[in-house]
Every structure is written in structure tokens, then in C-alpha cells.
Amino acid sequence: MLDVVIAGAGPNGLLLAAELRLAGVQPIVLEKLAEPDGAHRANGLVGQVVPFLHRRGLFERLTGNPEPVPAPRHVFGAFPVNFTDLDHNPMYLLPKPQREIEQTLAAHALSLGAEIRRGHEITGFTQDDGSITIDVAGPDGPYQLTAGYLVGADGGHSTVRKLAGIGFPGVTRDNSVSRSANVRLPAELFDPATGGLALETGVLPPFQHHRTETGVFVFAPFDPANPALSTTEFRPADVPDDAPLTMSELRASVQRVLGVGLPIEPPSGPGPFLARRLSGGNTRIAESYRAGRVLLLGDAAHVHSAIGGPGLNLGLQDAANLAWKLAAEVRGWAPPGLLDSYESERRPVSERVVMHTQAQSALISPGPEITALRELFGELLVYPEIRQHVADLMSGADLRYGTDPATGRWAPELPLADPAPLAAAFRAARPVLVDLTREAALADVAAPWQDRVTTVSSTATGEAPTALLIRPDGYVAWASSAEQPDTEELRAALAQWFGAPIAAAVSSR
After folding, report:
1. pLDDT at res. 431
2. Residues β-bridged to residue 427
3. Contact, 140 vs 120, CB < 8 A?
4. What is the pLDDT of residue 238?
5. What would the pLDDT profile of 131-164 be if each residue is shown by its tens digit?
6. Which of 21, 212, 318, 324 has a beta carbon 3.0–4.6 Å from 472's, enabling a disulfide?
């Protein structure tokens, strides 16, 4: 019997497969597309997922840079928000087309031993207390797989979610249309000082959302030779949804939004190029993230506006949260309720993302009352504490699992005399007990969990807790600042998150 079958070879499914392999579980990824379609979707990663990928050794693969650096600014509801004067800037950006992120994650998963089957589509399944039997349509005909679990990472129109009978309540809006395309523009329109567009009405900086009373305009020169232009208008599209986007349609939309025309021409070069029209949108969260041996991940569990770029931050952290818990269940050491904590921890995060993307969508809407609201909101953004709140919200740095203020937060970067052992444990996706007591006494306490928890004993070169128990997804399970940490509290935390100790270690003590 297989361990886990994953439906969908997008970023979320691929990261889940890699994380499961690191945890000693064998997944098979089924993707209905025979080849990656290369379609333009996300333009990169925003937020807490960037340092997570750095800890896995993937940031440098994606960017060529050794470590991430916080971004000086980002946008919220078409407001440029400056983060340079904040006490703590958590806004990490990784600009990279989704297709390249998928390529890197696929190579990562394959290198760890995951299996990816393209051109294989799930058509049905049945499950009982011990397994799930999955019907698959493959290139050579239908077949069945039997596994311990099935994870639906197959997008907003998830077949797995529908087959599981899980409802997807929410709202659909049909009062807007967005158009995006790579284009060519005359060189004289580029402002050399800002990299933005020099129009007769003024300079529009790049990568900002420019809201007018008729819509929103974005100029994104990821490729300076073929920059992307996007418009959002709050009016129905005047062409069928399945009709291809034309340059004349985009020119007319830009004229309506900006009030000035742009001499837009088709892009040049090999491509692939973006040319997309999206009408309306959905905001939905699945009624449950689990139905027996079926679990949902990413867009299969929640969809929302893409404004601000939170989608992959949310979905990839779903994968990081689910992977180690599912692996614990498969390997037989999961404490009661661990797998169900996937939904109880991640659902509030998705609800918070839905909240702020809906708020941003309201802030870019037309109308004098919205303009007045924006004037007030702009005044509030003068205050650093407001901008800190926005940065924490958008990045996910305000995330806390549970109510204990000492735990449930992202594990901080620790000033260690020798950081290499901790970095190696992070890269291996291991739970880590960091012992900075200078006596290495906690290693004996954790010894009965040595098959699943790595102990790193070190010394701090700066201010730091005396001990931290860090989950594989990077969040703190237990912490102490006492010179002599409470060993009974540590044992309780180890058992709560990582199950019963191994009998051999218990009997030897």
C-alpha cells in the first residue's frame, strides 16, 4: 500500500511531496496535465514562506542569492507602504514566475525520491478505516492505487474536494474584469530615474497599484523588453470570457483607467507571454479541510483575491504544516489529534488572508466614498505602528498557533556560535531541540525521542532563549528563558507534539 497520493503538481503539491520525503514518507503526485502548461499565474512569493524556503536551502536555488533581505516597501490596497523605518521588517519578497518556482520544487521533490506522474487524473475513490482506493485515468488506461491518504492540491476547482463531498461556501463577484499582458512600449516612455512610466499626467512608478475613479493600473517590468501591464475595471467585460485578449482591448482599457492612451504593441521574442482576462472572482473556504483519509491543501481549501500576492505564502505554508503531521500519522508516532490540528491551525490563517484581501479589494473600488476612505487610510499609514501592523498582516509574521505567547510563533534567527548544525537540521525538516544552557543537559531529556527529534547544543553569542523546541514547519513548540529550563515541561511538549518516546530509550534510562 502506498503512503500518500497527492493530486496536483503545482507548487503546493510539489512542496508537500518534498516535505513528506524528508520525513521518510513515500508520496506519488498525480497531475492531470501531461506537461507543465507554462501559464502565467503568480509572479513570486511574499512573506514568511521566503525565510521558510531559505531554511530548506531552496532560496538560493531560486534566486542565486545566499539569504533573503526584507523588502523596503510593498503595496496594500493600492497604497505604497514604506517599511524601512520599522523595528522589524518581515516583508520578504521573492519575485519569480510561478512556472520557475514549480520547476525548482519539482526538481527538489524528484531529487528526494518523490514520484510525479503527469497525464494521470483522479476520477473517483472509496475509503475505509484502513486505506483509500483511488481510481485514476492514465495515458495507458484506467487503474487503481491504494494508499493511506489522499491530498487534494488540485486548485480552486478541486476534483478531490468535489469527490469528497466537501462544501466550498463563499461569495462570487461578477462586477470586475482584469486584463494583463506582456507588451512592448516605446523607449521614451520609460523614466530612467524610477524605472516607471513617464506619462503626460506624471510618472507612474513600477510595481505599484495606481487607483483611479475608473479602475486600477499596474506596470510591472519583470522583463524590461516586454513589461507586463494590468488593468482592473469595475464593469462587466464586453467580450466573452473565452475570447483571447487583444492589444486593442488592452489599449482601450488602459485609456479608460488612466485617461491617457499608451502605444501598446505585442511583445517580441520567444515567450511564453502573458495575455489574460479574468472576470469577477471568488472568495471561498472549504467547509472542512479533511474528510476521513482525504485532506485539502492550498487553493483546494481556500480561494481569494490575489491582491498583495498572499496566495503562495498561504498555500506553501499549508504544505509545510500538513507534511510533518501527515508523516507522523503514516509512520505511527502521531499523538492523538495531531493531524486534525492541521485544520485548526491553518483555517484561521486562511480566514485572515480572506479578510485582508477583501479589505484591499474594497480600498481599490471606485466611488467618492472610497476615495474618502482612502484619504483617511493614507493618513493612518503615516504612523510606524500602523505600517508594522500591515507588514505583519501581509507577511503572516503575526501568525500564532494557540494562545500561549511563548509558543506558536515563527522561531527567531538565533545568534549561535556555530549555526551549521541547526541549519542542517532545518534543511532536513527535522524537529529540533536547541539547548543553549551551556550544560547540554536537555539532550538527555530528549533522548527518548531521538528517532524523530534532533538536539542541537550550542552557545549564544547574543540575546536568546535558553532553549527552544522547534517544529519541522519552523514554529516554536516550547520555549524557555530560565537558566535551568523545566524538564517536565519539555517532556510534556515532546509528547504533545512528537508522540510517545521510543521504548528502547525509555528502558535504558
Report:
1. 97
2. none
3. no
4. 79
5. 999 999 999 999 999 999 999 999 999 999 999 9
6. 324
Q: Please name the amino acid found at residue 65.
A: N
Cell triple for residue 269? 521574442
Q: Where are the alpha helices (DSSP H) in 35-97?
A: 49-55, 59-63
Do the beta carbons of residue 399 and residue 346 sit within 8 Å?
no
**H or E stretch at 11:** helix 11-22
Q: Which residues pair with 456 in a beta bridge?
A: 434
294 forms beta bridges with 150, 291
Residues shown for the chain: 509
b/e 435-464 (16+ beta carbons within 10 angstroms → b): bbbeeeebeebbbbbeebbbbbbbeeeeeb
3-state SS assignment for residue 472:
coil
Cα 55 from Cα 410, distance rounded (Å): 12
The residue type of 325 is K
Q: Rounded to whole angstroms, what are the CA distances from 276 to 257, 279, 281?
A: 17, 10, 14
Phi, then psi, of 189 in degrees rounded to 5: -80, -15
Q: How far apart are CA 387 and CA 380, in angstroms?
A: 9
Q: Name the residue among 176, 502, 151, 146 with its Cα closest to residue 325.
A: 151
Q: Is the peptide bond before 72 cis (omega within 30 degrees of 0)?
A: no
Angle made by CA atoms 52, 469, 411, in degrees to the nearest 5: 35
Using a 10 angstrom Cβ sphere, with 0-12 exposed, 13-18 middle and 19 or more buried, the burial of residue 496 is: middle
Q: Are strands 432-435 and 467-470 parallel, antiparallel or unpaired?
A: antiparallel
Q: Mean pLDDT over residues 79-91, rounded?
A: 96
Cα 137 to chain centroid distance, Å, stands at 29
CA angle (144 as vertex; 140, 149 as ends), nearest 5: 130
Asked if 133 and 145 touch (Cβ cutoff 8 Å), the reply is: yes
The CA dihedral of 342, 344, 348, 354, to the nearest 10 degrees, is: 60
Give the least confident one: 341-350, 395-404, 428-437.
395-404
CB-count burial class (<10 Å; 0-12, 13-18, 19+) for 171: exposed
Q: Cα separation of 63 and 70, whole Å?
A: 14
- pTM higher than 0.85: yes
Look at residue 466 in the predicted model and tell me its pLDDT: 94
- The stretch 96-109 carries a mean pLDDT of 95
Percent of the chain at pLDDT above 90? 90
**Residue indicated by cell numbers 498582516:** 393
CA atoms of 475 and 477, how far apart (whole Å): 6
Taking 70 as the threshold, does the pLDDT of residue 489 lie above it? yes
Query: Could you tell me if 161 and 152 are in contact, meaning their C-beta atoms sit under 8 angstroms apart?
Result: yes
Residue 93's pLDDT is what? 95
Q: Which amino acid is at 358?
A: Q
Beta bridge partners of 232: 178, 216
Give the mean pLDDT of 179-197: 95
